[in-house]
Design a protein that fits this description.
By secondary structure, the protein is of the alpha/beta class. Helix content is about 30%, strand content about 35%. The protein folds into 2 domains: about 180 residues, Vaccinia Virus protein VP39 (Rossmann fold); about 60 residues. Bound molecules: S-adenosylmethionine. S-adenosylmethionine binds next to strand 2.
């Protein structure tokens, strides 16, 4: 697994400031509903800073989490009381090994798009299968490729502007060039923020694998999992021309 997959410390530091604002309204309720429809233990893969995990845990879910990025893990660990530290571990979706099985495994907010090769995608699906109880479910989401955006790319687009603490400004710019043959978006995130009266800047380059509908269907069909449905949004509407998300629901 490439190191460019591991979220750097500055990205982890500002993750909640940005994504509580730009992502939570879209998917939070959906994943809470799936979690509280489940009676047994739940695993969140790519648990990050606990955007969904913490709410679920605080509301009584028996939830566990793994993440490949030590910087994201440390932030979540610092938010958890010591009695719950055993619930989270630094592990890779392609190789993880836990000593229990789950009734629901989720990989919310494009975790699977960090898997650039078919080999890694199958390894991940295999590890998920091995950790599901009979009849357990695996749910993950991916973005539906926007062909116009992939063709044109993005050049230094300001996609967040706000304050990360009172009076301290944070701005993020995103750039993207797509490689259509390998179905990879090369993404650069540039952060600019106020720190001790100075303006600080950091950049992170990472790659995301984009998927098309039938590729997902074939991938799941070739794995040990069973495909239940691919929905087009977090209200579980069928896929249509306007769909921006693939919500992939699988069963053991
Ligand atoms: C966009 S964040 C989503 C975090 C959280 N699930 C949420 O919804 O806010 C993607 C997370 O996946 C993690 N990740 C990326 N590749 C991974 C891998 N191979 N195994 C486990 N986690 C991975 C990243 O470190 C990051 O924390």
């Amino acid at each position: 697994m490439a190191d460019s997959n591991k979220y750097p410390a500055f990205f982890a530091r500002f993750y909640d400031t940005i994504y509580d604002q730009v992502r939570d309204a879209k998917d939070h309720q959906y994943f809470m509903n799936r979690i509280f429809d489940t009676t047994g233990p739940i695993l969140e893969i790519g648990v990050g800073t606990g955007r969904l995990f913490l709410d679920a845990l605080n509301k009584g879910a028996d939830i566990y989490g793994i993440d490949i990025s030590p910087a994201m893990f440390e932030i979540l660990k610092n938010k958890l009381p010591e009695k719950d530290h055993h619930r989270i571990e630094v592990q890779d979706i392609c190789t993880f090994n836990l000593d229990q099985k789950f009734d629901l495994i989720i990989a919310p907010f494009r975790v699977f798009m960090h898997l650039l090769t078919v080999e890694d995608q199958f390894k991940a699906l295999d590890r998920v299968f091995a950790h599901l109880n009979p009849d357990g479910s695996f749910i993950f989401d991916l973005f539906v490729p926007n062909l116009k955006m992939l063709h044109e790319g993005l050049d230094h687009v300001k996609d967040f502007e706000g304050e990360y603490s009172p009076g301290k400004k944070l701005t993020r710019y995103s750039s993207m060039q797509a490689d259509p043959i390998n179905q990879i978006s090369h993404v650069t995130f540039k952060f600019v923020w106020d720190e001790d009266g100075l303006e600080k800047t950091e950049e992170w380059k990472t790659d995301l694998r984009f998927f098309f509908r039938y590729e997902i269907e074939h991938l799941i069909k070739q794995s040990k999992l069973k495909l239940v449905n691919i929905f087009g949004d977090f209200q579980e509407h069928e896929l249509n021309k306007q769909s921006k998300e693939f919500i992939v629901v699988c069963k053991k």
